[in-house]
Amino acid sequence: MVKVDGRVARRQGTRDSIMAAATELFAARGVTSTSIDDIAEAAGIAKGSIYYNFESKAGLVEAIMDRSSELLTAALSDATQGRSGPQLQAAVVRALLALLQAHPATAQVMVTELFRTERSWREAIQNWRALALATLISDLEASGVDRGHARLRAAAIVGATLTAGLEWLVFRPEMAADEVSAAVLETLRLT
Fold this sequence. Notes:
Elements: H1 6-29, H2 36-43, H3 47-54, H4 57-80, H5 85-102, H6 104-113, H7 122-142, H8 147-171, H9 177-187
């Protein structure tokens, strides 16, 4: 049995608390309008703990995006394994919607930051975007679609899914996930 150092576990717990508080605040107010003081207060910790764990607000944003990329990679890998063509595309739609539902504040932060290219965390957001598109691009290219069109089609699938997913979570939360998935798949002609 592996013994976990109590300090390591506490530090990870602190990091998780900070990231959770920051994500909720970033989703509600935006990254720019949220201060380190706001995050410390929401997390119930000293401001210095944020700097100790993340060095800066930008480092914290990057950590949130990196965690989102890890979740995305795992979800897409599980959902698309052994699939291709429209089945793979539908699996990506369902996996993205499931992630949105499971992590709505993170999704809101990711989507609002996706096109803000002047930010210091640009690389982290571009990584997330590339991960979201990669499986689709690969599959489309394997079916004979040229790279340029494959990238646009993959972006259309991901973009439509994210837009519909946020519409669902913000304005229509009473809808069942299956209804939202069916609407997106029908719109994208993947049914």
